[in-house]
């Protein structure tokens, strides 16, 4: 198989293996001769496409041809232009969605039940700096904590989450930084937490503690480094207590309905919308139908496909929140005099993605076909079971952190280019193609490329679900094995 036609209305096909100039490829009862060399993941015209005519992929326009393209021609950024503009008017046109059951709904994973009713899939001790000035202190304490926790069989490790903020921030940036850190303190994957401050920052520990509200003083402890003579000795003493507290927890059977999973697309290629993203969408539908929760973010990568999500809103209120989500993010771009459609990235283009519509129609497939039940602000935690949308940028590190802060116990990260990135929670890398999976096996956790090699979606979804449950039950992801854990916080404003 050299090409794949995704939808019967498409006038382009995706090249699944490199096609040489003059090569004859079969499309149904018709043969198409390649006019030039075309790399895998890229698009080939199935018929003549006139200048100004829409190029159709996934059954939807992904832009218009800016020059005539002959049948067998390469369709990409040199002859294809987005149709997207700025702000649009939207109308709620709900579609009927029939929920389906699944034999998988009776399944369980081995998680950690918390005293507040939450469920974690890791039992870690987290060190969270309120300000970047104590980042190195947090790193030194985490290293010491790993040695201290070695004897605690049920503690999965001691980890710090450094960041560049916490001081010299004003307004929304100050509140955003604090809110993301508060969310992490409350995350169920953390058995216990040490919050470290300096003492003179604007994100002060006393204000942070007040914002936290009621908390378990055995689970969360605070250290202001300017208030003690030896902050490392004081930190180690607190870690000893926190490790002992976390060690009280052990894994037990938990229903799949208690999973909250983040849906994240990394450096997408031309296969993303064919393999990995539909697979994640299939898993999302499975979890939602079983009473679980999934969260889709990266708002700029919804542009061009947003109406698909809007029409799946469970009611007009959620529809209105989705419209606001899209328009507010476009407004953010416009406030900095930037075009709302300046996407995809160079890596996306190299992999075969040509326009934002091309990218978005593939990316939104991670949300499957389930109703959209709620729209979350950046830093807000999920509180409604089902498919949620979360305000966040396309930036991988920021988006992954936002998903963790929203309460997701793990993140499903699809990629056609490959990345070692891991966030505060287990980050599962799903390769869009087998070549990437084999080449970067130390980065990748699951191969969605098998969908191009004769495996059907139901079969691969069940296998993927099995894998996710093993991760939820304690199996380390590749990023965890390599020690790749980091957070990034959204910033929009001045620095003093």
Kindly describe this structure.
This protein has helices spanning 135-149, 171-185, 205-212, 231-246, 276-289, 306-310, 316-335, 346-350, 356-363, 396-405, 434-439, 457-472, 478-481; strands at residues 3-4, 12-15, 24-27, 30-33, 43-45, 54-57, 60-65, 74-75, 80-81, 108-113, 119-120, 124-129, 158-160, 190-197, 220-224, 252-255, 260-265, 293-296, 372-376, 386-390, 410-415, 427-431, 446-447. With 496 residues, the protein is an alpha/beta fold. It has 3 domains: 3-81, Roll (Archaeosine Trna-guanine Transglycosylase, Chain: A, domain 4), CATH 2.30.130.110; 124-250, Ribose 5-phosphate Isomerase B, Chain: A (3-Layer(aba) Sandwich), CATH 3.40.1400; 254-481. The strands form 6 sheets. The protein has a 7-stranded parallel sheet, with helices on both faces. It has a 4-stranded antiparallel sheet with strand order 1-2-5-8, with no helix packed on it. α1 (135-149) crosses α4 (231-246).
């Amino acid at each position: 198989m050299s090409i794949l036609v995704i939808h019967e209305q498409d006038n382009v096909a995706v090249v699944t293996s490199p096609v040489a100039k003059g090569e004859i490829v079969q499309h149904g009862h018709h043969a198409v001769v390649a006019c030039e060399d075309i790399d895998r993941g890229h698009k080939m015209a199935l018929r003549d496409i006139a200048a100004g005519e829409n190029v159709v992929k996934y059954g939807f326009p992904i832009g218009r041809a800016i020059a005539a393209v002959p049948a067998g021609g390469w369709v990409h950024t040199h002859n294809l232009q987005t149709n997207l503009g700025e702000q649009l008017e939207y109308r709620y046109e709900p579609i009927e969605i029939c929920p389906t059951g699944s034999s998988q709904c009776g399944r369980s994973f081995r998680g950690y039940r918390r005293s507040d009713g939450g469920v974690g899939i890791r039992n870690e001790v987290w060190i969270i700096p309120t300000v970047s000035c104590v980042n190195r202190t947090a790193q030194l304490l985490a290293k010491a904590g790993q040695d201290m926790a070695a004897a605690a069989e049920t503690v999965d490790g001691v980890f710090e989450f450094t960041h560049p903020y916490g001081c010299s921030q004003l307004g929304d940036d100050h509140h955003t930084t604090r809110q993301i850190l508060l969310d992490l303190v409350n995350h169920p994957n953390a058995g216990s937490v040490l919050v470290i401050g300096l003492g003179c920052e604007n994100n002060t520990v006393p204000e942070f503690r007040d914002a936290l509200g009621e908390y378990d003083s055995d689970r969360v402890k605070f250290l202001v480094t300017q208030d003690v003579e030896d902050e490392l000795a004081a930190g180690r003493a607190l870690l000893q207590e926190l490790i002992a507290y976390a060690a009280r927890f052990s894994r037990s059977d938990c229903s799949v309905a208690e999973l909250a999973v983040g849906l994240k697309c990394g450096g997408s290629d031309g296969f993303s919308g064919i393999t990995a993203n539909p697979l994640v969408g299939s898993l999302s539908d499975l979890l939602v139908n079983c009473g679980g929760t999934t969260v889709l973010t990266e708002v700029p990568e919804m542009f061009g496909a947003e109406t698909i999500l809007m029409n799946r809103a469970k009611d007009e209120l959620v529809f209105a929140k989705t419209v606001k989500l899209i328009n507010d993010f476009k407004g953010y771009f416009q406030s900095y005099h930037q075009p709302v459609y300046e996407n995809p990235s160079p890596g996306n283009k190299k992999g075969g993605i040509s326009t934002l519509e091309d990218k978005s129609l593939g990316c939104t497939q991670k949300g499957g076909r389930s109703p959209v039940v709620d729209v979350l602000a950046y830093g807000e935690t999920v509180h409604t079971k089902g498919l949620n949308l979360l305000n966040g940028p396309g930036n991988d590190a920021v988006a992954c952190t936002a998903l963790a802060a929203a309460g997701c116990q793990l993140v499903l990260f699809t990629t056609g280019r490959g990345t070692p990135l891991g966030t505060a929670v287990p980050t599962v890398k799903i390769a869009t193609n087998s070549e990437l999976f084999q080449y970067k096996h130390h980065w990748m956790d699951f191969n969605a490329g098998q969908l191009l090699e004769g495996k059907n979606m139901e079969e691969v979804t069940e296998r993927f679900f099995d894998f996710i449950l093993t991760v939820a039950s304690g199996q380390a992801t590749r990023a965890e094995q390599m020690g790749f854990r980091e957070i990034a916080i959204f910033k929009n404003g001045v620095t003093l």
